[in-house]
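Worked example

This section walks through a single chain of length 208. The input is the sequence exactly as stored; nothing has been trimmed or padded.
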Amino acid sequence: MTGTLYCTLLYFGPDGRIIGKHRKLKPTAAEKLIWGEGDGSTLTVLSTPLGRIGGLICWENYMPLARMAMYGKGVEIYLAPTADSRDSWQATLRHIACEGRCFVLGCNQYVTKEMYPPDLQGHSELAARLDPLCRGGSAIISPLGEPLAGPLYDREGILYADLDLAEVVRSRVDFDVTGHYSRPDVFQLFVNEEPMLPVQTRPPARHS
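Given that input, the structure is written out below as tokens.
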């Protein structure tokens, strides 16, 4: 047990148990004051009855090689949780869907000032902020980059869409980023998935 916090994407099974995790590789801006950096050991894609599920957190989705690592693992349902409610984020979700030929589920919180308790330390600092503090923007995108639901702004809610995994296969006929469009004779990516442990041990050498 250590004292380091990580920005983490957790995967839960139908029984409520954690079946996988991903620790954010690079905390963004002031996040560096709170969270540590993850390593390649949690670049997770899980085989489930719903399809192969994986994802990256917020702006690490702007890391091309991290996305490529996920595509290389055959992700079909790509999760992209964020705190970015700008219109440009919707373009990012659509680009990932088109690039990876996968369904993209983007989620973001809708947060207003009144959701914060008055006795919260620093509550008075909210007065100068615009309301809502975060307008949301959750969306579900098809493997060809078309919105299936959302984006959902300025209110709480749940988005629904039917995901046909056969559409993933069909969409890769003309473009498959880790298949016929990859050109490994020109470009190659090496991903280090070893846990980066600060302390490692080995058994003592045996002497005859």
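What to look for: Helices lie at 64-72, 87-100, 166-171.
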